[in-house]
Amino acid sequence: MNSYLDRYRKRNLGESANIKEKEVAEMVNEFDEYLNQSITSHEVYYTKVDELPDITKNEKKLMIINDISNNDKKAYDEKRLLCSLDTNIEVGSYIFWDGSWWLIIFSENKSVKTSKKFTMNRCNQYLNYVYQGELYKIPMTVNALTLYSDGMSDRVYTSMGDAKNRISFGNNPITRTIDVGTRMMITNKTVYRVTNLTDFEYNSKIGENGLISALLLQTNILKEDDVENNIAYNTVSKVDNISKIKGEDEIYLCDENKYEVEYYGDVEFELDFDYVNTVVVSQGNNKCTVRHNDSMDDLGSQVLLIAKDKSTQETIDIKNILVRGL
């Protein structure tokens, strides 16, 4: 009797333990057939979790790319991506298709696990980022946030650019070195500084790495910025990136901080902007004093202290200082 039931179960269920498993297996097989026959199937390069985008090293796999019917100038160019369950990609991974890199920004948790389904955006810029002497080209999406303004901030005696942008890029060992205060050049003309960074908002699961988003504020160009190759100077760009400016990373309201640099020549200190409430009040003997006046509006903001060789005007080091309350 048991032998008959076993033969009957195997004939009807195959290797599945029950009807539910059999139906799921059939749906997975149906997706595999669809994947191989669909006119929207493409063999594309993709980055695995924690892998850098580089088509000379990335693997290729067959995936389905479908249009989103409500594509418009607000949504930019978004596509739906479908791939097999064994594909090692998640939110923050990259796809190279149609001559462009695409960034996976959203993962749909399907109730029946027959395939993986994502939403991806076309990257519209590269970030040329130098880390410890090596150049990395990081594809990213850039959205302008300079609204209701001409991108200029009027101060007491002068005006300065304050254009803002929001960028998004994948999470990997190199992009995780980007932090608040990191400087970026996007257009060979303008340098921006990261003022806010979020790496927890978009992911596939709680606690996993995913998409990194950052807010950028326009800052001044330094002598060391490579305008021709679109590379902004950062202290991490050097192989030896030990901080040379000694002093506190935070300054409190109505307080003064002292900073110094051990250097063989004369040092000149300056801030990246002509701030209203944060100023270098004195300097000499390779030391300076930075003071913040009483302004609650500056809480949580950062200023950039720059140490230069007084003779050559070459940048020795830069230091981000956070404005804190009492």
Which properties best describe this structure?
2 helices, 22 strands, 6-stranded antiparallel beta sheet, 10% helix, 3 domains, mainly beta, 326 residues, Immunoglobulin-like, Elongation Factor Tu (Ef-tu), domain 3, Thrombin, subunit H
Describe this entry's structure for a reader.
- This protein has helices at 2-13, 19-37; strands at 41-46, 59-67, 78-83, 94-97, 100-108, 116-122, 125-131, 134-144, 152-154, 159-161, 164-170, 183-185, 191-202, 211-219, 245-246, 250-252, 256-261, 267-271, 278-284, 287-292, 302-309, 315-324.
- With 326 residues, it is mainly beta.
- A six-stranded antiparallel β-barrel has the order 1-2-3-6-5-4.
- 10% of the residues lie in helices and 44% in strands.
- The chain has three domains: 12-122, Beta Barrel (Thrombin, subunit H), CATH 2.40.10; 125-237, Elongation Factor Tu (Ef-tu), domain 3 (Beta Barrel); 245-324, Immunoglobulins (Immunoglobulin-like, Sandwich), CATH 2.60.40.
- Strand 5 and strand 6 form a beta hairpin.
- It is built from two helices and 22 strands.
Instruction: Return the CATH class of the largest domain.
Output: Mainly Beta
Helix/strand/pairing category: mainly beta
* Name given to the CATH architecture of the largest domain: Beta Barrel
Q: How much is the average pLDDT? A: 84
Give, in spatial order, the strands making up the sheet with the most strands: 1-2-3-6-5-4
Q: Return Rg in Å.
A: 26 Å
Our count of helices gives: 2
- Biggest sheet record: 6 strands, antiparallel, barrel
Number of domains: 3
> How many β-strands, per DSSP?
22
Cα end-to-end separation: 82 Å
Helix content: under 10%
Based on Cα principal axes, name the global outline.
elongated
Helix-strand topology string: HHEEEEEEEEEEEEEEEEEEEEEE
Quaternary organization: single chain
**Poorly predicted parts:** 148-161
Estimated share of beta-strand residues:
35-45%
Q: In CATH terms, what is the fold-level topology of the largest domain?
A: Elongation Factor Tu (Ef-tu), domain 3
